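If you are new to this repository, start here. Below is one unmodified record pulled from the training split, so you can see the exact layout before writing a loader.
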Amino acid sequence: MRENEMLEKDEIFSKVLRAGRRTYFFDVRATKADDYYITITESKKFTEEDGSFHFKKHKIYLYKEDFVAFKEILEDMTAYVLDHKGEEVISERHQKDYKKDYSFESDESQETPKASFTDVDFDDI
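And here is the target side for that same chain:
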């Protein structure tokens, strides 16, 4: 099998969740026997003192035989947290007016994030 065919076969379906410094990649992939499984990858951006940056990635492989139990436990855990602590983010790093900025994307809709900046007039300083 050609390398391109293997890549196409491996990339079945994907979604991306951008959540601040973290990005989560949800991918459906195929085994050699052409069965499907899911990978969940957390990618977190770290900035060095010199301004350069790197990403740390952690990956979970989730197979079909574990889907039901995984989903049930995830639902139980998220419900527990929300029932006991609510949806408000409690953190020193967040302001009172902190707003969730989650974006969900599929492969078809991945866009380049737009840069935001403040225009500074040095005559004002």
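Two things worth knowing about this chain: The radius of gyration is 20 Å. Residues 109-117 have pLDDT under 50 and may be disordered.
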